[in-house]
# Entry
Amino acid sequence: MINSHPRLRWRVLVRTGSTGKLDPSKPARPLSWHLVTCADTGLATAHCAEGRRLLASADDPSGHCLLEGVCPRCGLTS
Ligand SMILES: [Zn+2]
Ligand SMILES: [Zn+2]
# Structure
């Protein structure tokens, strides 16, 4: 019953413009994945290096959110 890695939960944000319509000039992928524990879905420092890179390029960190300073997806440990 002991599990050192609690099951991760994710949330997906659907990003819409102010008009609610997709901007044809933007990539047709208005979804961004974050951990439910993500401190701030728009804050680069709440994500690992890979997450920051993805945030900057596609606005979707693909769940690379830091959880207590660790990115569960990368498995980064101190
Ligand atoms: Zn996040
Ligand atoms: Zn990561």
Remarks:
- Residues 49-58 form the longest helix (10 residues).
- Helices lie at 49-58.
- The mean pLDDT is 80.
